[in-house]
DsrE family protein (Streptomyces axinellae), 122 residues
Amino acid sequence: MAAHSTLVIKVTAGADVPERCSQAFTVASVAAASGVPVSLWLTGESAWFALPGKAAEFTLPHAAPLPDLMAAVRANGRITLCTQCAARREIGAEDVIEGVRIAGAPVFVSEIMAEGAQALVY
């Protein structure tokens, strides 16, 4: 991956599939901490983590705390909550934690189609 490439990660799992969820956040945070531009998309059940306090409720043995992983991504990348996922859960822009934006499929497609972008789905 070129130094300017963005790693776009779409996480669909939340507390319902904790290992897959944790893997997505771990990969995103490690990449961001390594200087890789990261765009983490919260979709499906992971949408709840855009709300204050929800990441702190997530637990998985031998996994880094989700709030720490999210903080690493927010510090060095971008977190986006899917527009439709937010609407289905009645989450508005005023509800999400600082540093989380709400955007839809056109923005996601634009990001994954950008030159050099790499995409992962969990």
Summary: The domain at 7-121 is CATH 3.40.1260.10 (Hypothetical Protein Ychn; Chain: A,). The chain has a mean pLDDT of 95. Helices lie at 18-33, 54-57, 66-76, 83-88, 105-113. Residues 87 and 102 are 10 Å apart (CA to CA).
